[in-house]
Amino acid sequence: MKPQHLFVWFIVLSSSIIGGTLALVNHDRLRLPIDPPALNRQSNRSTSSWQSQLSQNSASQLPSSQPVSPYQPVAPDSLTASTSVAPRQPIVLRDEVPPGSAFDQFRSQFRQAVRDRNVAFVKGLIPAEGLSIGFGTPRSAEQLELENPSSRFWGVLEKSISRGCAAARRSDYPTVDANSEVWICSNVTAAFNQQYPNPGTEPGVGYEISRVIVVGNRVNVRAQPVVNSAIVGVLSNEVVQFDQQAWEDFPPEQREAKLLHPIDGWTPAILPDGQKGFVFNRYAYRPLGERLILGQVNGAWKILYVPAGD
Predict the structure, then answer these.
(1) Residue 295 shares a structural domain with residue 203
(2) Distance between the two ends of the chain, CA-based, in angstroms?
(3) C-beta atoms surrounding 64 within 10 Å
(4) Which stretch of DSSP H or E encloses residue 205?
(5) Is 142 helix (H, G, I), strand (E, B) or coil?
């Protein structure tokens, strides 16, 4: 074979080898993006990131036309775990009313009347001389604004009667019938005083003022006093610290609308891990908050008094 033929044959053979190698490399490159292990690892990272973002931001991403409950539970793993700097203080609430008792039957009727905003029923519970709230003078049914279904007093009734009740000493209320029971509704303050009595380390009622009792299972704590704010913690039937500084920093002209309503307002609180946030007032009780004293006068159940501020 002539030398020039050998040279041509060498060129052809080399080209074939190089071309086959390039084809193999390109084929492997095309396979890389759908390689199962790599795809699965990427998918897991993306899913984890997406779930984390969703759990943190789902409330703010919901359409404004869809109501968002401040008590909408979140998954336990959707919150970042943190090291507690203070012991948690759980509270046990026991309804002392015997099922089927006369007061239990009355309470069921009372609860329904509050849900229905039944003015006539509630008017019948107001003493003839009026009803005192805290240290104030007695108020008539008209002064309590029963005709307004959104009035503060309706909120007090709804919040007080929705929980359990505790027995009170009849001797403390001389106007009730001799055979009447006396009940305090709700029982949250009574349970707090029994389970977490004032240690005497703060002057006056400073201890009671500095506490918030959150009642409910997995109640959301939000960064701001709005239902679509970020969730910063979850509390279940426990006592936490009242955030006095947040209260003082809140614009005074907005406190009545944003913080003070017993149902639709918000309470600033400090969680055991130091995180600060707001609890919807439907689930936030204060040791010196309003509650109802109920007893029978001349055979009829009455609201005897509404303690507040103690």
Answers:
(1) yes
(2) 118
(3) 7
(4) none
(5) coil
The residue among 60, 88, 106 that closes a domain is: 60
> Once rounded to an integer, what is the mean pLDDT over residues 184-208?
94
Q: Are 187 and 165 in contact (CB under 8 A)?
A: yes
Are 93 and 163 spatial neighbours (Cβ–Cβ below 8 Å)?
Answer: yes
Residue 249 within a domain: yes
Residue 310: the pLDDT is 66
**Same domain as 114, residue 13:** no
* 161/300 same-domain check: yes
**pLDDT surpasses 50 at 91:** yes
Rounded Cα distance, 307 and 292, in Å: 7
Rounded average pLDDT over 242-248: 95
Tally of domains within the chain: 2
pTM for the model = 0.72
What is the span of the domain harbouring residue 260? 79-310
Phi-psi group of 282: left, alpha or beta (phi > 0 → left; psi -120 to 50 → alpha; rest → beta): alpha
Phi, then psi, of 229 in degrees rounded to 5: -75, 160
